[in-house]
Amino acid sequence: WQLGSQDAATPMMQGIIDLHHDILFFLILILVFVSRMLVRTLWHFDYQTNPIPLRIVHGTTIEIIRTIFPSIILMFIAIPSFALLYSMDEVVVDPAITIKAIGHQWYRTYEYSDYNSSDEQSLTFDSYTIPEDDPELGQSRLLEVDNRVVVPAKTHLRMIVTPADVPHSWAVPSSGVKCDAVPGRSNQTSISVQREGVYYGQCSEIRGTNHASTPIVVEA
């Protein structure tokens, strides 16, 4: 049914899911309360029961209650929201691996800055989408690439995202990461994949034809 989020692969995504469930609890309470008040109003104050409506200008007690209770609910929502927001902005000072993702019009280039090849150059490779008519058995349509981003599990990683031409976005829902790439600057985010698996993402920035056909595949 695809009604919920993908299974969390990082503590960040788990925090997002937990916050969603907490807020949903308050939303259900508010929905039940407002629905009950609406039904009672329609039942007790219809034109047959009260042909002459009451003319109430204001009520001090009800105004105080309807001001204090929403404030308390907002406080219970705001505290975990800000805690999660600031934790998502934290960048690991000493990551085990730094990976640079360079966005191109229809593909991505990944650079492992901490590892050098035989000619003392950083380990770099391009990641192209596997064509729609050329997937292997078991591969997802328009979600698979020829070269995956391989990362170790339970390790702190730093992702540096930058574009080579137009705006891009590096987004993997299971990791709770969506990092925009703006021309002329580099953005960074931290990831810590907690379990082994293959995680898929897509470009989340509208940038022209087939912008969604440049998937991201992370293998831990």
UniProtKB/TrEMBL annotation:
Keyword Transport: yes
Domain Cytochrome oxidase subunit II copper A binding: from-to ranges: 94-220
Compartments reported by the entry: Mitochondrion inner membrane; Mitochondrion membrane
Domain of life: Eukaryota
Keyword Amino-acid biosynthesis assigned: no
Cofactor binding mode and count: Binds a copper A center.
Pfam families: COX2, COX2_TM
TM region(s), chain numbering: 23-43, 64-86
Topology of this chain in the membrane: Multi-pass membrane protein
GO cellular component: catalytic complex; mitochondrial inner membrane; transmembrane transporter complex
Swiss-Prot/TrEMBL catalytic activity: 4 Fe(II)-[cytochrome c] + O2 + 8 H(+)(in) = 4 Fe(III)-[cytochrome c] + 2 H2O + 4 H(+)(out)
Main location: mitochondrion
Residues annotated as domain Cytochrome oxidase subunit II transmembrane region profile: 1-92
GO molecular function, one term: cytochrome-c oxidase activity
InterPro entries according to UniProt: CcO_II, CcO_II-like_C, CcO_II_C, Cupredoxin, Cyt_c_oxidase_su2_TM_dom, Cyt_c_oxidase_su2_TM_sf
UniProtKB keywords: Copper, Electron transport, Membrane, Metal-binding, Mitochondrion, Mitochondrion inner membrane, Respiratory chain, Translocase, Transmembrane, Transmembrane helix, Transport
Cofactor(s) this protein requires: Cu cation
Protein task: Component of the cytochrome c oxidase, the last enzyme in the mitochondrial electron transport chain which drives oxidative phosphorylation. The respiratory chain contains 3 multisubunit complexes succinate dehydrogenase (complex II, CII), ubiquinol-cytochrome c oxidoreductase (cytochrome b-c1 complex, complex III, CIII) and cytochrome c oxidase (complex IV, CIV), that cooperate to transfer electrons derived from NADH and succinate to molecular oxygen, creating an electrochemical gradient over the inner membrane that drives transmembrane transport and the ATP synthase.
Assigned protein family: Belongs to the cytochrome c oxidase subunit 2 family.
Name of the molecule in the record: Cytochrome c oxidase subunit 2
Organism listed in the record: Aristolochia elegans
